[in-house]
Amino acid sequence: MPIRILHVVDHLGKGGLENGLVNLIEHLDPARFEHVVYAIRKLGPNADRLAKSHVQVLCQGKQDSDSRFQVGNLARAIRQVQPDIVHSRNWAAVEAVLAGRWVRFCKVVHSEHGLEAGVNAPEPKRRIWFRRLAYHLADRVLSVSYQLRDLHVARTGFDSSRITVIHNGVDRTRFYPDPATRARVRQEFGIAADEFCVGCVGNLFPVKGHMTALQGIEELAAQNRNFRLLLIGEGPERESLEGFLAQRPEWKHRVQLLGTCHRVPELLQAMDVYVLPSIAEGISNSLLEAMASGIPVVATVTGGNPEVVIDGQSGLLFPIGDAGMLTGHLLRLEADKKLRAELAERALRRVREEFSLDSMVGKYAQLYDSLGRKAALPVHAAAGI
Questions:
Q1: In this structure, is residue 174 part of a structural domain?
Q2: What is the pLDDT of residues 118-148, one digit of tens each?
């Protein structure tokens, strides 16, 4: 009998966490592992991907007006599914740790994949306390980057040696250099051979820092550079970004907000440089995908970005919100095709060696195997908090 895992997430919409979860499920050996995914708030495109893989998906459909505490609902779901392991992800699903301990017949894993705001944003004391409690109750605690691990250790006082880091991995069967696709997509979007195409993929949330990307290309526009900017993603920041662009009508055919798009692997090929201007990150899947696609990358010094990008070797880094330095990097890369090619080649090599999907899947399989079907420990594991 395979080990049954109940994965608990906030939702199954577009996002790095959700995409990474589906990638993991699709590549774990079905003879060894069986999966059920429980979305607390809503479904989305990644639910459709799971359905194609014949994975059972449950949705609570939590509304903003619902009770703040979801432990009871989650405990009922756990009893219904009867998993060997409950794996919750991020703050929105952390109550599944308590629910798993309440039912007592399963092992519990909790993992941190990113932040809702910047690293310096204050966190309520009750949330810090609750997170620490959950860490103590869980059989295993994971983080996708050392920076994120250290941040939560500093906030909660939890022992760093008890948090395992498993970096995200990129699917190189979907993301790889493809000159033929590059030529086809650039022709489709009317991007000339001499046009410098910059791109970014990510939900349009404040934490993703898209405004910095727009500010960073202002100097290119001021110097009458032949550029194009593609922003792929959707979210509440669209209105602000459109307001910024409305004040620059001359950019009408230079900047495109493409919204949610299922052609990301193709569109990455059209880019000369990939920009990740995020305020906070765990390990960015989109950054790994760009590197695997053979594109030079420019990213902020935040979260796991410096763990992925070695500055000056496999990409270029800049401080959060520093549009001036971003501009400098873009001007340098626009002028130096040789540098772009060198950075792209080193980025591709780094992803192959350090951030492969096979490596990530193997580490999760080892983790789940180590927990197996042994009976969970009693709740007194939280003693001494």
A1: no
A2: 556 678 899 999 999 999 999 999 999 999 9
